[in-house]
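Supplementary Text 2. Reproducibility record for the structural model of the 236-residue chain.

All settings were left at their defaults, and a single model was retained for analysis rather than an ensemble. We include the record here because the model underlies the residue-level annotations in Supplementary Table 4.
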Amino acid sequence: MHESNPFIVADAPAADRAAFFRRTYGLVAAAFGAFAVTLYALFVSGIAETFMRSIAGVGNWGMLGVMVLFWVGTTAAQSLAFSRASRLAQYAGLGLYVLLQAIIFVPLIYYTAIVTKGNPGEILIPACLATGALVVALTAVVFMTNLDFSFLKVAIVIGSICALGIVIVSLFAGWSLGAWFSIAMIVLMATVILYQTNEVKNTMETDQHVAAAFVLFSSFVTLLFYVIRLFAGRRE
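Retained model, structure tokens:
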């Protein structure tokens, strides 16, 4: 049920602001729980193995196709999560995005299992802890300093376009994107988290907790992806 008179979060009464952040970060935690369960189900059911065989069968075109479908699906999920039509549509958008992220993580989890000889937890556990610590630190910077991080938008747009270009070119040129790329993406995602947390606080309304959770989960899980990739690359 929507609030009758939502405020911008930064201007809301303290109780409404606190309730918004409880709902938002509670949803982010629930999204990560659903993400972990979905990944586990994909591997246990054998769907992950079928997915990997399908990609391998068509080479680089398969991975490019997955990227395109992920982008299309993400656009649809975001549209639903930001919809004012119904709360159910918003939750459906967040759920769809969790599923898409789980699918995108399948090749990375396979890779970690290979480099750890069947013990991916050796990488996944420290990577999750490092990501969590970084997220907490970045979030604290936004809320404790009250600085305006909106100026980061231009750098994020330029960095994202460059990163996408590098990934696409690497697929066809056969480049191996090493640790330098993972580090660059971690820096970019840290910048995104500062910007998006700032935007959630200063531009969203107190009834948009699902949309806020979508935005934050997106940046947090992408950061996790590249932290895992960096840790796994060191084990090669």
